[in-house]
Automatic annotation (TrEMBL):
It comes from the Bacteria. Residues 9-339 form the IMP dehydrogenase/GMP reductase domain. GO terms for cellular component: cytosol; GMP reductase complex. GO terms for molecular function: GMP reductase activity; metal ion binding. NADP(+) binds at residues 108-131, 216-239. This is GMP reductase. K(+) binds at G181, G183. Catalyzes the irreversible NADPH-dependent deamination of GMP to IMP. It functions in the conversion of nucleobase, nucleoside and nucleotide derivatives of G to A nucleotides, and in maintaining the intracellular balance of A and G nucleotides. The active site is at C186. InterPro entries: Aldolase_TIM, GMP_reductase, GMPR, IMP_DH/GMP_Rdtase_CS, IMP_DH_GMPRt. Keywords: Metal-binding, NADP, Oxidoreductase, Potassium. Its EC number is 1.7.1.7. PROSITE patterns: IMP_DH_GMP_RED.
């Protein structure tokens, strides 16, 4: 046993210090980033926010709405090949540029993804998605995928420490997904005692990835647009969102009507709800590591996205970052013990 004494931080532990700025308006801020990658020769331009590959969030409807904002969606792995055929047939080139195809690490996953990529050369991203990116078989599978899809942008995860980020990048990942336990409907930290505060994970993993020419996605733990700004400030190249995008028309959660109120179910991918839905039951050797929640229905995603992007532009103006790319180098975090003043929150009208 060993104890690491240095402090690890989450989003709630810091604020970003304001800096002198020459920007006159939020409208001057450019949130588009242009990425080139370690292995793939594609260049991708867009706003580096990703809708999570959770089955209620990473839907084809979400891709269609978020591509209007130049934002990516990691499409969940439960769509059949027939669904993919229909989606690709009805989508133009621009929409497909905002798709990430998620897969697990089984032989069937490999066979399916080969068929999906045969449907269109316009899809560029693959995300190998397992809760525990420390498993040896993730590395073996990643190498297989890199050898087969030489030109694609490959993401793999999830991990939270620099040495594993390096191993994934050296094994063929262009982008590493970072986050164990911070998610809004995740109970891994409670069930297992395992995890890592997300901001420190970002800072340490970005350092490791950038040193090798790789990139990272911060996955999980953002609850407000200020957290997204902190994730980018800490060095994340992309930020993945689940809970912040939940409860919208583009989601596939079940709608529940209760008197005059409308709610939507949202659940973790390791929750009882997800396991029952896709496996019929919870295997005897497993425990659920996710929650199911009933949240107020919020209508179309576009209003939420405008709010998030407005918040992010404002973060950039406070620290004088004309482009999102400059946010990291202009960020100084201050450690704090306070965030929002919540005194009137119970009286909120909007
Ligand atoms: P959020 O943005 O909601 O805070 O976090 C979303 C992320 O939580 C997802 O992208 C995924 O990595 C993670 N996640 C989703 N479902 C579960 C779950 O059931 N258990 C755990 N441990 N993590 C989950």
């Amino acid at each position: 046993m060993r104890i690491e004494e240095d402090i690890k931080l989450g989003f709630k532990d810091v604020l970003i210090r304001p800096k002198r700025s020459i920007l006159k308006s939020r409208a001057q801020v450019d949130l588009i980033r242009n990425f080139s990658f370690k292995y793939s020769e594609y260049i991708w331009s867009g706003i580096p926010i990703i809708a999570s590959n959770m089955d209620t969030i990473g839907t084809f409807e979400m891709v269609k709405s978020l591509s209007n904002f130049n934002i990516l969606t990691a499409v969940h792995k439960y769509y059949s090949l027939e669904h993919w055929k229909d989606f690709i047939r009805t989508s133009s080139k621009f929409i497909l540029n905002h798709v990430i195809v998620s897969i697990g690490t089984s032989n069937e996953d490999f066979l399916k993804i080969k068929k999906i990529f045969l449907l269109s050369p316009e899809i560029k991203y693959i995300c190998i998605d397992v809760a525990n990116g420390y498993s040896e078989h993730v590395i073996t599978f990643l190498k297989l995928i890199r050898n087969f899809f030489i030109d694609k942008i490959i993401c793999a995860g999830n991990v939270v420490t620099g040495e594993m980020v390096e191993e994934l990048i050296l094994s063929g990942a262009d982008i590493v997904k970072v986050g164990i336990g911070p998610g809004s409907v995740c109970t891994t930290r409670v069930k297992t005692g395992v995890g890592y505060p997300q901001l420190s994970a970002i800072i340490e993993c970005a350092d490791a990835a950038h040193g090798l020419g790789g990139h990272i996605i911060s996955d999980g733990g953002c609850t407000v647009s200020g957290d997204i700004a902190k994730a980018f400030g800490g060095g994340a190249d992309f930020v993945m969102l689940g809970g912040m995008l939940s409860g919208h028309k583009e989601c596939s959660g079940k709608i529940i009507k209760d008197k005059s109120n409308k709610y939507m179910l949202f659940y973790g991918m390791s929750s009882m709800s997800a396991m029952k839905r896709y496996e019929g039951k919870i295997a005897g050797y497993r425990a659920s590591e996710g929650k199911t929640v009933k949240i107020p229905f919020r209508g179309y995603i576009k209003n939420t996205i405008r709010d998030i992007l407005g918040g992010l532009r404002s973060s950039c103006t406070y620290i004088g970052a004309e482009k999102l790319k400059e946010l990291t180098k202009r960020t100084t975090f201050i450690r704090v013990t306070e965030q929002e003043n919540r005194i009137f929150n119970v009286f909120k009208t909007e």
